[in-house]
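In this supplementary section we document a worked example of the pipeline. Step one takes a protein sequence of length 280 as its only input; no multiple sequence alignment statistics are reported here. Step two produces a three-dimensional model, which step three serialises into structure tokens for compact storage. The input and output of this example are shown verbatim.
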Amino acid sequence: MIKAPKDADARRAVKPVICYPVETLPAPNLDLYQSARKGAVKVSEVLAAPREAACFRASAGQFFRISSVEGPQVGDLNLWNANDLSERFYSGKSRALHGTHLTTGERMWSSFPQLRPMATIIADTLDWYGIDEFGGSVHDVIGTRCDPYTHNLLSGGQYHHCCHSNLTRALAVELGISTAEAEPHVHDVLNVFMCTGFTRDTGQYFMKSSPVRVGDYLEFFAEIDLLGALSACPGGDCSSEHSSDGAACYPLLIEVFEPAAGALEGWQSPALSGYCGTHG
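The serialised model returned by step three reads:
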């Protein structure tokens, strides 16, 4: 190990600067969304079975809710523009703008070159959790999704019900394409209900038992036409392991709600990024 320089303490003591101050971000009109939600009616629902994924669609201006319905369970969420799969959820930029974990009033942003809000969180029954003594919090955008490639790398095994594979199969079925065609569209996720953080000593990504209980939910407003896929993770509540048939797993319910006519008066889907696109 290299010996620390004489000014090591002074270098460490430099105060951090927030990379992306969010004061100029366009703020969602939560009052409008929540008012429209009160009169909305359910128009569809889908159940993601344990260790499987399910696709759903929510049109711009609709709401969708992900709920724990039988037991503590975390889920991995992918979102695409339903009319253009090249526009998809950008977890890294969402993390850079909002932080490591998302909650009410924060947004799932799309990939370049569109970079616009895809969905806005309007309700979170776990927002009371905050950040615990270990640095853990809920609904992260730091984990990538459990996948069979990392599983094979670490254990040599062939496991097909990792969230990556679940999402791939579900998307293939939804679009009527092969898994080979679907897989490139699967991307880093919002880890719904998952409690995670980074260890203070080694900086490693950790998971711990999720605080989610039956009846808890995370609810979104669809800013654009969405195709979504949700995997009920094979880790269950992620209290001990993932990518396993040993954990207790439960389904997750996705419900879609349509607001009353005129309830979103004045609202329109966010415009594409205003950048000119020439790159100099």
